Amino acid sequence: MKDLKDLNFPDDVKYTKDHEWARKEGDLITIGIDDYAQDQLGEIVFVELPEIGAGFSKGDEFGSVESVKAVSQIYIPVSGEVVEINAGLEDAPELVNQACYTQGWLIRVKPSQASELDSLMDKAAYLDMLKG
Amino acid sequence: MEYKRALEFQIKTLEEGIGKPFSLDRIFFVEHPPVFTLGKRGGEENLTVSREFLASRGIDLVQTDRGGNITYHGPGQAVLYPVVNLEAKRMGVKDFVWGLEEIMKQTALDFHIQASRNSLNHGLWVGNAKIGSVGLSIKKGISFHGLAMNINLDLEPFSWINPCGLSHISVTSVKNELQKAGKDFSGPAMNQVKASFKKHFASVLNYDISEPHES
Question: Which of B37, B115, B116, B191 is deepest in the core (most CB within 10 A)?
């Protein structure tokens, strides 16, 4: 695993303790896994995403990521309805390793409680948590 | 122990440990009656005999949520299920998989067998023959499922599948390799394998292991 200082944590997203990120984009929230998660998972070979239209509550499992013979569950940072999924990951799951905050995003949701985003950690709080 | 029963033990341990970073991990060492298991993404296409054939032999086919493809478990295979809170230990999944492979590699060495990793696939290999496999599932940072190492099991059921979804590979066992080397071999007892696993798990993953109290 890389040292924390060698990982990238942008300022324009919020983080969860389960290592997902969430970014507000207009009325929608884009969600992915962060650089810490992709680094500790290793080479990602498959991403399982929900159906468009599926509804989730904050903290629900919404899919899984398979790497190095391990299937890891992923948890949704905010409640809402899935309005878009990153279909490109079906053929190129490695995008999650290569560009987890951009081309490697997972889903977009229409949040049902916009304030939930504010309760997530900013970069400073997340780094404090990782440093333990 | 039946595959499904072992899975229930793991899930119970996992559920007790969610959100409790200081709760104790548990490591289960078992042998299963004959059973084929599928990975989360399946693998039944790599079963080269019919379900009816398996049923006629009394062998179950179980869908699981672990990584990897189809595999076989049976008596004479040492199976280790470490239910370990990786998140609490800040241990990466890829490092944990490397560690499980290393435990099998060191165990093989205890029986004077040189085994290695192979770019074909994860797990442990003697040349192009697979001797040990890894498959994990991770929920809330806690890993379950684990590793399986072939000690002295009947290898025939592996000929009914493309193991791990790979054709043109073979499968071997500790017994098989020792016989090939011309060693007088009756096979290590499972308690020797368990002792090796325990010793190497502790050193490779820097871990304290204690035997459970009778309850």
Answer: B115
Write out chain B residues lying below 8 Å of A18, CB-based.
140-141
- Whether B209 maps to a domain, the answer reads no
**Subunit contact B93:A67, Cβ cutoff 8 A:** yes
The whole-angstrom separation of Cα A78 and Cα A109 is 8
Cβ separation of B134 and A64 shorter than 8 Å? Answer: no
Q: Is the pLDDT of residue B184 over 70?
A: no
Q: B213 vs chain A: nearest CA distance in angstroms?
A: 31
What is the per-residue pLDDT for B215?
Answer: 46
pLDDT at B164 over 80: no
Per-residue CA distances from B16 to A23, B19, B59 (Å)? 32, 9, 31
- Is B198 contained in some domain? yes
Q: B65 contacts in A (CB within 8 Å)?
A: 71
Instruction: Tell me the ipTM for this assembly.
Output: 0.93
Q: What's the whole-number mean pLDDT along residues B174-180?
A: 93
Residues A36-69 as b or e (16 or more Cβ within 10 Å = b): bbbbbbbebebbbbbeeebebebeeebbbbbbbb
Residue A41, CA distances (Å) to A26, B52, B122, B214 in order: 30, 38, 14, 36
For the domain that residue B196 is a member of, what is the CATH number?
Answer: 3.30.930.10
Q: Which residue has the tokens 């193991």?
A: B163
Residues A95-99 have a mean pLDDT of: 98
CATH of A12-113, one of 2.40.50.100, 2.40.160.20, 3.40.50.300, 3.40.1160.10: 2.40.50.100
Predicted TM-score of the model (pTM): 0.94
> Is residue B122 included in any domain, yes or no?
yes
**pLDDT tens readout for residues B95-146:** 999 999 999 999 999 999 999 999 878 999 999 999 999 999 999 999 999 9
Mean pLDDT of A45-59: 97
Closest listed residue to residue A66, CA positions, set A44, A88, A50 = A44
**Pairing between β-strand B129-139 and β-strand A70-75 as defined by DSSP bridges:** parallel
DSSP state of B120: T
